Amino acid sequence: MKFMKIGTKPDTFYTEEATRTVISDIPSDLTIRINNVCFLLHKIPLVPKCGLLQRLCSDADDSDIVTIDLHDVPGGEDAFELCAKFCYGITINLGAHNFVPAFCAAKFLRMTESIEKGNFVLKLEAFFNSCILEGWKDSIVALQTTIKLPEWSENLGIIRRCIDSIVEKILTPTSKVSWSYTYTRPGYIKKQHQSVPKDWWTEDVSDLDIDLFRCIITAVRSTYIPPPQLIGEALHVYACRWLPDTTKSRPLHSSGSQTEESREKSRRILEAIVSMIPSDRGSVSIGFLLKLLSIANYLGASPVTKTELIRKAGLQFEEATLNDMLFPSQLPTDQHFYDIDLVAAVLESYLVLWRRQSPLPTENSHMVRSIRKIGKLIDSYLQVVARDVNMPISKLVSLAEALPDVAREDHDGLYKAINIYLKEHPDVSKADKKRMCRMLDCQKLSPEVRAHAVKNERLPLRTVVQVLFFDQESGSRSTTHKPESITRARQAPIEAEAKEECDKKVQHEGTKSSSRVTETSEREIQKRMEAKMVRGDSEKGKERKGETNSTAKMMEPKQVFQRRSSR
């Protein structure tokens, strides 16, 4: 940062309440009132350097005390004081932080060369051209200060010239970047990197107001075609700088006017960022899009903004990881922690696009691989949110059922999610248990999971029966080469008998009370079924043994005949 010192005299201004005075032996003959502050000054030396004061004091005698109201001076009393100190020759320090109000006030007071040589405006213009516009951070700081005087800054060309200077430096090849810049990415150490990163400028421009930041991004994109990822990184840095973080915990909602004003500012920033996201896929990460969507829910952003974020996130949902999806719910009415509705909305957007692109997917197509990747991701997400003790079962089932059948190559992940939910919610009704387990396809469970399910006391009896039947059927296929129809025919009596006994037990318990079968009865039925399965295997073993013996008996005469022939 560069500074300019003007004047040599010590500061003799002092303030007493709302009055600012210069220590002098000469009595004050010029009173300047600005807002609620009163300046007690002298015509000499102010009037000779200020064309406006010359005009306003033209009708007064030299001995008269003149009072002038300058309530509309740009920059207010502080900017006027800088101009007054320049007239007195008092030392002042100028930099990028106070250049804009000083320059606008000097222009307002007409402290130009036509009034007096070497006047304030000339010195300020020289400082602006040689120092501020030549510096990287000076240009940004000066541009940011224009938000307090937008009309004056625009009319005097300060905004345009600062933006041009900043954009010019952004477009400079990284090998020629020699000025100081801010870059605080985690793990990045400047001393260990010889080359300048391509996004070296993103953190410094994130200090700007959103409207000025938009001007910079627009100017960069209109001057040349930058990589979309570079623009996306600038948007990401700006969002992290100004938007609330909704990833850690649920923000506290407040009705205070100051909080609401802050939320309105954040909404404006969010909507501006979303509108600047490049249309190129991958310009920003899916994690960033989901984060913006969570912030939009918290801030109550417009439906247009939310819809656009959901659409963009759906296009890149395949790239998401589990951590990208773990956001707390932002609705104060939700008792559950995780924002499962956000994931459901993005999944729905993804499925709309998937069905449009792949009406009849083949087994090895990219779209099948894509949907199966999403299936594993959703099942992993369900396993996490199932631990939420306040998670409604309807939301869990709705998200699980949203996936098409082809999305799950196996149901192991879904089974784990159901088991976790039943473990964390021991009071769930049997009707809800059946509702959850109805989603399971026992044929898509691995042997290890089936073995666990058979012993799982949390599952409904009907689900355990289905697992046992399929496990028995799979075992039969692996130990015999007989047609499947024979296997099913042999299992039919066992299955019918087991089901009949189960139904009788249910009916018997129903006459006693309106409640369902107790867990003890279910376990008894399960044990009986397992015993029947064992007897079924035993009978099949005997049959196979009998077939072997009969074959041996048929072979025996032939062997005797062969021995006899050899003799």
From TrEMBL:
Ranges of compositional bias, category Basic and acidic residues: 496-511, 519-547
InterPro entries registered for this protein in UniProt: NPH3/RPT2-like, NPH3_dom, SKP1/BTB/POZ_sf
Region feature Disordered, mapped onto this chain: 473-567
Similarity comment: Belongs to the NPH3 family.
Keyword annotations of the record: Ubl conjugation pathway
NPH3 domain ranges (all copies): 199-474
UniProt keyword Transferase, yes or no: no
Domain of life of the organism encoding this protein: Eukaryota
Pathway membership: Protein modification; protein ubiquitination
GO terms classed as biological process: protein ubiquitination
Name the UniProt record assigns to this protein: NPH3 domain-containing protein
